[in-house]
Amino acid sequence: MDGPPVHEVTNPFRRAEHELAEAAGAYLHNTVRDAGVTCAVCTTPVSGCHRCLTCERAYAAAALGEIVVPLIYGIKGSRSAGVLRGYKDDPRRSARARYARIVNGLLYLGITLHERCVERQAGQPIDVRLAIPSLKDRPGPHPFAAIALRMNAISQSPCLAPRFAAIYDHSISARHFRLTPDVDLTRRHVLLLDDTWTSGASARSAALTLRRAGARRVSVMVIGRWLAPGYARNARFVEGLQNPYDPRVCPVTGGECP
Fold it and tell me: Which candidate among 38, 41, 167, 222 keeps its CA 20 to 30 Å from the CA of 65?
């Protein structure tokens, strides 16, 4: 498996938990797994359905049944959204660094505590982790990939790269990404890492690329599931998010680890 054996709860874990609670614990919230209340895939609010319309269409069109594990909600107009956007786009260097530490802590704790939960749910150990690159023509390495690389959650090779002239249009297509080098992933389980899930198109496009390379299972862990309070019944759902983020709440089950 790429990366370090991050399953053991060690002193660095305790420090990360404490630092995250101090920096952002009061305004971050765990995603919710509640049948008929949230989408079974991406945890967005639904009205009595198993999956949201976007996830249902993706499943019907491409038979994409990946395990998707968002760690928190990124609520538009709130401080949680500021974290997901600010660590890469805030014009103030000090603010970017502050937000990046929060993203770093979330990713570290998510993998440390819950990668095994993903493996149990999938019924197969994870063989490799890959970061999903941006399709928005951002110059240089993406800040999220840099964070994941520094903590050895991913390696420099293999990696996903956007194809030349790929268009970010929320479509799902294996043509958006390429695997470099062109390795054989036959029968392997890949964990994709990303910062934000909005429509899920990038993650699903990356999953198709990996399936074409032979991957048996593709799971996705993202820092935040983006929510717009002005959409549908999201405002009422957001108002009900009262408990501060607890890294020990399993993002796979919404409660105890499986």
Answer: 167
